[in-house]
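Thread: "does anyone have the structure for this chain?"

Original post by V.I.:
We have the sequence but no experimental structure in hand. Need at least a predicted one for the grant figures.
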Amino acid sequence: MNKMTKAIILTVALGGAMAVATQAADAKENWEKNCAKCHGPDGKGDTKMGKKLEIKDYSDPKVQDGIKDEEMAKTIKEGKKEGEKTRMKAYGEVFNDEQIKALVAYVRSLKK
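Reply from O.Q.:
Generated one for you, tokens below.
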């Protein structure tokens, strides 16, 4: 492998790493701006609204094991209702699919 090929591979790898880091930072920012009010900064749901809605503790491994990524993404995108009562508003108009995927990964990082 010549020096030019190595340089190209390194540049692509670094670009990918930077993109992943940016998505993670964006997900944390999106969480803090849109989710933490109810779910709390740590995902425990230990907020006034979280307690009122009896939100699950996403730092609990058992809670995390009981929900699939696809289900979490769908809830973020479409919201969650119980009958006529909205338990969580839909964020499909706020976040694109990549941002939702990054938020799911962020929630997974809250597991202790």
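V.I.: this helps a lot. The longest strand covers residues 85-88.
O.Q.: and Residues 3-109 form a domain with the Cytochrome Bc1 Complex; Chain D, domain 2 fold (CATH 1.10.760).
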